[in-house]
Amino acid sequence: MGVLLACAAYAVYAAFICRLFFHILLWVRASEQAFTRPAYAVRIRPNTVAVTALDLLFLRRLFSQNKLLWIGSWTFHLSFLLVFLGHMRYFLNPVPACITCLQPFGLVAGYLLPLSLILLLILRTSSGKNRYVSVYNYFLLGTALVISLSGLGLRVFIHPDLAEIKAYILALFTFRPEALPQSIVFVAHFSLVLFLLPFLPLHMVAAPLVTLDARRREDELRTVMHER
Amino acid sequence: MAGDKGPQADKIAAGLTRRQLIEIEACSRCGECLLWCPVFPHDPREEISSRGKLGRIRKLAGGIASPSDEAALLDGLYACSACGQCHVVCPIRINTPELWEQARLALANSGLLQPEAQIQQLKTIREYDNSYGKPRAQRGLWAERASRAGFFLGPVPTWSEQQSEVLYFAGCTASFDETMQPVAVQSARLLQEAGVRFSILGADEPCCASKLRRMGDNEFRTEASRRAEMLAGKKVRTIVVSCAGCFKGLHSDYRGILPPSVEVLHLTEFLWRLIREGSLKPRHEVPLTVTYHDPCHLGRHNGIYEEPRKVLGSIPGLHVVEMKRSGPFSACCGMGGGLKLARPDLQKKMSAARIREAEAAGAEAVVTPCQTCLMGLSAGAAAAASSLPVFHLNEMLVRSVCPEITFDTIAAGLKSSDGQGGRSAP
Hints:
The complex is a heterodimer of chains A (228) and B (426).
Chain A (H helix, E strand, L loop, with lengths): L1 H28 L16 H13 L1 H6 L1 H25 L5 H29 L9 H24 L3 H12 L10 H13 L6 H22 L4
Chain B lengths: L8 H7 L2 H9 L5 H5 L13 H13 L4 H12 L6 H5 L6 H14 L6 H13 L12 H8 L17 E4 L1 H6 L4 H13 L4 E3 L9 H5 L5 H14 L4 E4 L2 H10 L9 E4 H11 L10 E5 L13 H8 L4 E4 L17 H4 L1 H17 L4 E4 L2 H13 L6 E3 H9 L5 H13 L7
């Protein structure tokens, strides 16, 4: 079982790296501008970068449209980030001080993460719009919810042997897979993460570029509008 | 992920820009686009939404699309008015309107056929230099007939007769569609009322060819360059455009093609400038409560929301109420992006829905500054069995500045002028 999970983990990592590599190759091969509009090209200003960062950090476009959805979405992203950073203590040895400092926040985020996912599910299913939520949405939200709940369960109720888990993870990362930890809930939690990874959208990688480009286009439009 | 590439995949990927290939991966699948899409309520299928289209383009570019994915993408791409609402509401702000146009182009280049009605429309534009399939010589007839009928304060010269810095660009619809010619006549008259020294191109006015870009035609850039060269050669300083589609074409699509020294303004921008300067004075009361419909090409695509509202606000007695969806969130009437040609059923439903929204706002009439939206909304009023009148913005201003030339008066006058031996089309 341990070997099987280790093989699955390596396969998922390899697929993830291949997927990224494939996309980067596609992007590099693509023409810079199939349809060029060079005359009014506006340089990206520091202000544009700052505004883009605020757009991304606070999901400002969503805030202007749907406050409840924004609460759910923003809480999800923030708590996911904190939980992810909190998990770094299992992957790094020695654990950096900054990761140790984040642990209390990670604990709070561990509670907020499933709550935000439940809120998102409720909001999406109660919108009344026909097929607003796709099967893919249900799959992502549902799997993430089970992962977050199992993680919370491990932390609050089950209290597995963390030293054993950390040793297993570190061994996996150094290509010396060891026997599986005893906790079945941990095995399920870890397996589900591996299962979800190939299905994660790449928007976290692409969103900053796209949002920055949108802000740059706005600057460009302001440059060519005559009345402002 | 890559799998075996389909026969079209390389061409699709090569047809998209690097930025667009990154954009298709930026979708977080949140579904906001779907909530706001004006087409989706009338055809609630995933492939109609931006999320659905992006998913299919991702598959095509990644070489894992099935024939059913290709069919679904074609269906979704052409059942889209490219209104840009999905771009406005996208939390990541994916530039969807340009993506759809580029994808249409890439699909056409890869051999996937577009709807027959669109192919015919593009053929007509290339053959006749207008979307109506009428001889070019007829393009300036609206001015000749209106002049004969006495709707102008003086002659409306062609550029060859009077080389002026301001050029009024009427566009195909207001030039050739008899029901829309009053828009061109009122535009010219309002410019005269303000004392603007301007000319028109008459029979030399080209089609802006923006429909080629909207529908994914490979020849757009060549055609646009040819037209831009002609316009630049005239040493015009300002081009005033009364059609939102032509404005999007000349102002946005020609960016980098038309010299930056040429200022392209929508009529409402120019009219507001004239009102602000005091050259044009709305005098007579127009006691009416109206609601303003933002054309997509003017609002979402070019950020012109204020000027038309300021023009309406300057008219004494006129009261403007906003619809539930206005400004950047204004619902599309369905006339853009070749949707009316590909799916006329959807266009009717969309414009009917917009009319019902205007009724709910408590308006006595809908006003729009685009003749294409005017046509679409009028059809929508008929489809919704609504008695709500739809006016061009010019009509409101004309009622306040020169009430003797209302839309209906001009329409009747042009008809009789034609009947009295107006120059017939060759």
